Amino acid sequence: MHNRHDGEPLGRLLLIDGDDKHAPLVAETLVQSLGEGVRITVAAGGKQAAELLRDASFDIILADLSCLGDLSERSDDAVARLVRLSDGALFVAVSDGASVSAAVGAMRAGAHDYVVKPVNGPAMAGRIGELAQRHGKSRALSIAPRVERRSDFAGFIGASSAMQFVYEQIGRIAASSAPVFITGESGTGKDVCAEALHATGPRFGKRLVAINCAAIPRDLMESELFGVARGAFTGAHDDRKGAAELADGGTLFLDEIGEMDLSLQSKLLRFLQTGTLSRVGESGVRQVDVRVICATNRNPMQLISEKRFREDLFYRLHVLPIHLPPLRQRPTDVMVLARHFLARYAAEEHKHFSGFAPDVAGLLTSAEWPGNVRQLQNLVRRLVVMCDGGEITMPMLLAADIESRGVATPAEPVARGERRQAILPMWQQEQRIIEDAIASFGGNVSLAAAALEISPSTIYRKRQGWSEMAAAG
After folding, report:
1. Is the whole model's pTM more than 0.85, yes or no?
2. At what angle do helices 456-469 and 445-452 cross, to 10 degrees?
């Protein structure tokens, strides 16, 4: 790793993009976001990039996978060759949204991450900084990106890089009518995401109709979704529209889609394919125009393997995926959220709070938060109701933290059997263990696999399944 001298650029970025009209636009937006001190070199293909890497040192490589065919027929082989020549540079692959397997193959070949076209300058700058810290790329860390971070967006609160990427995704896909598949643990704000997509899209003037597939009995779900014709069954005295008809022209949000009965999944698939529906007890069909957004806190690939979710329905719905990161993966947002909730509920309860004591803030930031934002929100609301005002201190926190789900002090451990910890689903625990192991080894999958006593191919298979859930991430 070379030392910089006066007059040298703060960072060198190699952009591999074969489109002579598109490449200058990408380079310009990256310079605007990363700063004038970053020198960007453009290569039209894999061969030219390899020649440049043999002669010069770069800090970051941004490679469009579709431009590497002149170096190798397989994009992952081309990436592997460029990675070997890169001298430890931060390598980011760029692919279109349909090439999930190609992107995963690039990461298997040594890329640190991938992004989906089109490249957004501010979002890319934030991602580079985040990746540089995660992978210990000190050269890339010398770049100081000029990123305008938003601390709130369409109902979301958070200024972390992870949330900036979510905001950018929502802004990019809100205008489309294609289905959106939202994944994320319970409490991460999947309903907020659906509302944001509707509110920032062209269907905002029409209705957003939400239906929770887990909260409605199976024998009533079809009538709730598609409606009922008069006389269809005892008690059906009038025609009644279902959620899909009520949302005509607007957005239909199917929360907890993984809990939908298989027999109804086939009818939903037909509705998505034809844009028509029949009310229960009705022989005719009705044309409906809705944008469908669905969400689940389950692993859809696991549901498919267990024959609990139709694979053809999944791929019909999984057009524009968004994955919401858990709160433990964005600790910088914890106090931003906590202060927001404190001000909100203090106003509701007509009380005055000055903030959080430093030891309380440190404890909240380091907590696991298995219930995510919802758990933090409930805790702050409980604090406001139970306390009279002033600064939130540790005794106040301990008195309000009746759940002890991720917020507990080392000095006052929870006795065995006194409070029960929340149990995450097996796939979520497995994902956390594997990703934490990879992070602890600086992104080296082989070392992480050796520590976990599994093969690297097992990790790649599992990550590919997760990638299908969080395709832009």
Report:
1. no
2. 110
